[in-house]
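Tokens for chain A. Residues wanted.
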């Protein structure tokens, strides 16, 4: 198949959706498909072949003025299927992307949308119900919809006729965009020593951008409680600070900085900054545990979770909003209530006291990660695209 993917971000832009798009496209390419990716430009418009993928960096802004460019791109590429990678921040929180499948529905090429979440766009002040309406329009007029988790599937099914949902919706979890491959010659004890961590330090890793949904303030409160209890805890913030797409993250990151200073945690909180995948892998492998206290609960849509699983980390996270057979408290992760620093601190202390539990959780995490390999993800995605290609529908 000739597959066209629209994504508001793509490397070297910092962002999980861009990383996902690249990883999925490379595996689809390996499986024999032709890939064209339309994304935003950071400077002059360019069309380049990178790693065998044709990357069209041509969109300046994602408003309605982009429709003509997108139409020309589709006409030039002549794809068998078009997939929109959707997360509102990567399209500048604007509404035009939501109506694209409806605008293109009579042009004979099936649209699919991969929803990384169902968060609504900003649109304009006092948009109110129009914000949710825009998301439902995108789902309604896409011939196919891919959800990354059961929670979003359950939400979207309520907006569609059940028989329609059965034929048009698929749940395909995302995978890890960071392979457990540290630099050559890596050894965790040496890496920790180079970073000035003592052998007895209990190193807590947090991976991902800083935003309100990540619960970093809860983690800081839990860290303070551990220090008060005399535990030699250190917190390592791994990866970029805020990403390229969502400007609201900067205000949250500034608030986190202020909290660190107010709590006198400057010497206990460390940062890698945005770095190479190999260095991210090295940092994760050096940690004793990985804490991911999502405010909305753990979910398969979280790329940061997938990375921690792939690295065989002992993970402490938060109870999911929708029960999932993938997550087993005490077996492949520890789960605590969201926004509860006392419970989070207690779980961290439990893992500090019981290294054998950390090892068991890490082993089970690695086994769970095997269910979300890119070969399987790309295979299921291509099968869904093939179905859309041969049975196009008009909602």
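Reply:
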């Amino acid at each position: 198949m000739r597959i066209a993917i629209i994504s508001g971000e793509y490397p070297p832009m910092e962002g999980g959706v861009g990383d996902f798009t690249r990883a999925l496209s490379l595996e689809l390419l390996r499986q024999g498909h032709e890939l064209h990716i339309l994304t935003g430009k950071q400077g002059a418009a360019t069309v380049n072949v990178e790693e065998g993928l044709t990357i069209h960096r041509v969109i300046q802004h994602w408003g309605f003025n982009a429709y003509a460019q997108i139409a020309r791109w589709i006409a030039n590429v002549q794809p068998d299927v078009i997939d929109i990678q959707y997360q509102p921040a990567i399209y500048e929180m604007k509404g035009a992307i939501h109506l694209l499948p409806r605008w293109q529905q009579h042009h004979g090429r099936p649209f699919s949308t991969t929803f990384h979440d169902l968060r609504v766009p900003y649109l304009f002040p006092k948009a109110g119900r129009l914000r949710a309406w825009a998301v439902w329009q995108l789902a309604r007029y896409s011939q196919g919809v891919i959800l990354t988790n059961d929670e979003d599937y359950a939400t979207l099914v309520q907006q569609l006729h059940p028989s329609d949902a059965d034929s048009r919706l698929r749940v395909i979890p995302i995978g890890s965009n960071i392979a457990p491959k540290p630099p050559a010659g890596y050894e965790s004890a040496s890496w920790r020593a180079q970073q000035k961590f003592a052998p007895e330090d209990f190193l807590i890793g947090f991976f991902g951008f800083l935003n309100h949904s990540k619960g970093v303030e809860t983690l800081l409160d839990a860290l303070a409680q551990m220090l008060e209890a005399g535990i030699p805890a250190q917190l390592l913030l791994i990866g970029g600070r805020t990403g390229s797409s969502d400007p609201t993250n900067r205000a949250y990151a500034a608030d986190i900085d202020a909290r660190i200073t107010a709590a006198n945690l400057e010497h206990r909180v460390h940062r890698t900054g945005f770095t190479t995948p190999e260095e991210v892998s090295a940092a994760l492998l050096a940690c004793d545990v990985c804490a991911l206290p999502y405010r909305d609960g753990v979910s398969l849509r979280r790329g940061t979770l997938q990375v921690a699983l792939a690295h065989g980390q002992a993970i402490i996270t938060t109870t999911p909003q929708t029960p999932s057979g993938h997550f087993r408290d005490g077996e492949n992760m520890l789960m605590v209530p969201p926004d509860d620093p006392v419970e989070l601190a207690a779980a961290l202390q439990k893992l500090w006291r019981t290294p054998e539990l950390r090892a068991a959780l890490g082993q089970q995490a690695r086994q769970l990660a095997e269910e979300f390999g890119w070969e399987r993800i790309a295979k299921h995605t291509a099968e869904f695209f093939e179905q859309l290609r041969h049975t196009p529908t008009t909602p």
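The longest helix spans residues 374-390. The mean pLDDT is 90.
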